[in-house]
Specification:
It holds the Pfam family HIT-like. InterPro entries: LPG0439_HIT-like. It comes from Legionella longbeachae serogroup 1 (strain NSW150). The chain has one domain (about 5-210): HIT family, subunit A (2-Layer Sandwich). It has 3 helices and 11 strands. It has helices at about 75-95, 170-185, 190-195, and strands at about 5, 25-35, 35-45, 55-60, 100, 110, 115-120, 130-135, 165, 200, 230. The strands form 3 sheets. It has a 6-stranded antiparallel sheet with strand order 5-8-4-3-2-10. Strand 6 and strand 7 (about 115-120) form a beta hairpin. The longest helix has 21 residues, at about 75-95.
Length: about 250
């Protein structure tokens, strides 16, 4: 007997974190694949381990952002995500770390053991096509000057739910570093030979067709954690109050 999958139907307000995709203030770039599929690349504002980032599918061409929620994704959309992941893998490698990533969605998945129905998405957490990426290496080494890599030692599992809250100054340093590395890479012969004109990279958060970027605050969404976060700092500086607070 197969379980039924139920995709949640809900209209999310413009202030919701899933619509206001740049609200965390940690954007690295928006990337458009084949002049059609738009993605947001940000540093995770609630976990500094491994210079962790999130690649999220925003929308297709001029469609609404919510049209990408709570549904099965096409082969073309999945391939587009893989292209963006391949690009960001090269950026992590340029730091001198080993890139790893995982395509998840656990926060938006629920299972009813009585009805045997799998529910995808809810009123607070829509299901999104996205993945988490991080670097592995010596946790104590500053692959980005002034910012230790942190995280588990190589060979141990990277636990995505055990988070360490970033220090604001370190977070800003990482954002600048990633932007610079990505900006240089898209000018390289390797990038041009591989992607030609099929990839467009912008460092402006609003450069997405159909996107309504606002500055209202909302819940942390898929940044949330089930474990109380530690603070990531080398000098006891508290994290910026401007970052989303993880749900506990």
């Amino acid at each position: 007997m197969k379980s039924k999958i139920d995709f949640h139907m809900h209209e999310y307000p413009a202030s919701h974190w899933s619509i206001d995709f740049a609200k965390a203030g940690t954007s690295i770039a928006t990337i458009t694949v084949r002049n059609k599929y738009h993605f947001s690349v940000i540093l995770n504002p609630t976990d500094c381990q491994g210079y962790r980032s999130i690649i999220r599918y925003i929308n297709e061409d001029k469609s609404s952002i919510s049209s990408a929620f709570n549904r099965i994704y096409t082969l073309s959309e999945q391939r587009a995500l893989n292209d963006v992941a391949a690009i960001m893998t090269k950026i992590y490698e340029k730091l001198g770390v080993i890139a790893q990533f995982s395509q998840l969605g656990n926060n938006s998945h629920h299972f009813n053991s009585q009805s045997r129905v799998i529910h995808v998405g809810d009123d607070e957490e829509p299901s999104l096509l996205h993945l988490h990426m991080w670097g592995r290496g010596d946790p104590e080494v500053e692959y980005i000057p002034g910012v230790p890599l942190r995280g588990p030692k190589p060979g141990l599992m990277f636990d995505l739910r055990t988070k360490v809250t970033p220090d604001k100054r370190e977070l800003d340093t990482c954002i600048t570093t990633f932007k610079n590395l990505l900006g240089d890479y898209i000018k390289s012969s390797e990038f041009i030979d591989e992607f030609e004109n099929s990839i467009m990279v912008s460092f402006e958060e609003t450069n997405v067709k159909g996107a309504q970027v606002r500055e209202k605050r909302s819940d942390a969404g898929f940044f949330s954690s089930t474990i109380s976060p530690k603070t990531c700092s080398t000098d006891s500086v508290s994290p910026s109050s401007g970052q989303p607070t993880p749900k506990l």
